[in-house]
Predict the structure.
Amino acid sequence: MLGEVVVKWVEGIQTLLPMCLTGGYFGSLRLAPKQTECFVRSHLEYAIRTGREARFLMCVYFEEHWEDNLEDLRSSLNIQSPPPPRKLD
């Protein structure tokens, strides 16, 4: 669920649609305590930065990029690599 919340935050920042913004906000409230800590410490900053700096992702035909190298695709969309996963014990 953590990944879905990050996606909603990126989507909300890029589109400013109320359903995306509220989905990101209320989705983050449903995270488990350890997930919330991880989200606040690293993933929220990543989502905000990506939403502001990345190319507008709603206009990207991802189906045309299945064969592309992931790092090349991230570079062309101006998306940084996400924070490394943390063990949530």
Remarks:
- The mean pLDDT is 94.
- Residues 33-53 form the longest helix (21 residues).
- Residues 2-77 form one domain.
